[in-house]
Amino acid sequence: MITIKSFNVNFFSENTYILYDDTLEAVIIDCGCIQPEEEMEIKEYIEQNKLVLKHNLCTHLHLDHILGNAFIYNTYGLHPEAHKADEENLPCLEAQARLFGLPIEIKNIPIEKYIIGGEPIYFGHSELTAILVPGHSPGSLAFYNKKNGYLFSGDALFANSIGRTDLWGGNQEVLVTAIKEKLLTLPEETIVYPGHGPETTVFAEKMNNPFL
Q1: Cα(163)–Cα(136) distance, integer angstroms
Q2: With respect to CATH, is domain 3-208 assigned 3.30.930.10?
């Protein structure tokens, strides 16, 4: 069984997730913490539960989802892992911050390992499968745990909505097609944990999402 802990962080109310199983090996998905108290909350949770962080996974490389990568690297020595298309087509963290008018200076941590669609990611006795869902960004990924029926959709799919497509490399037609073909084909009871907002299910989005 996988335990999921979510943290709502930064200026954009972004969802950061920590997952772990009975081995206490863990992954963090979309670490967006920026304030010292947000970093401390994550660090204390990891320490209190005696977790061993194995992967720093990024659904995509928009700044609100990677603001905490420097913290993870400096604290745990983990480089972020993401799809190559985002690194090639999106501005770096510092450039994005300037474009959004944010007065922050954070070191951009380079990607150490590229993730491709269909790739398995292991921690402890557990496995996530990377699903390429372009459209919000060129290399946007979702992470699926088939055994427990969990999907971490990043900013591709939200409760009753989909990701914005007006940023670098965004394309609404591509995004809607990818969601329909790759996410809505998962079992209907699959719980969807998005990059912003509340959790939902594949069934709920098939029935109610006005964009789909």
Answers
A1: 6
A2: no
pLDDT, tens digit (0-9, with 9 covering 90-100), for 64-112? 999 999 999 999 999 999 999 999 999 988 889 888 888 777 888 999 8
* Rounded CA Rg of the chain: 16
Q: What are phi and psi of 144, to 5 degrees?
A: -120, 125
Q: Check residue 199 and give its pLDDT.
A: 98
CB distance 159 to 197 below 8 Å = yes
47 burial via Cβ count (<10 Å: 0-12, 13-18, 19+): exposed
Contact 140, 132 (CB under 8 A): yes
- pLDDT, the chain, mean: 96
**Which contiguous run of DSSP H or E holds residue 59?**
none
CA distance 65 to 163: 13
- Token pair in block for residue 150: 């969990």
Contact predicate 145/183, CB 8 Å: no
What's the rounded Cα separation, in Å, for the pair 42 and 143? 20
Enumerate residues 6+ apart whose C-beta is below 8 A from 159.
Answer: 192, 194, 197, 198, 199, 200, 204, 205
d(CA 196, CA 198): 7
pTM of the model: 0.97
First to last CA, the chain: 31
Backbone angles phi, psi at 97, to 5 degrees: -60, -40
For 165-200, write each residue's pLDDT tens digit: 999 999 999 999 999 999 999 999 999 999 999 999
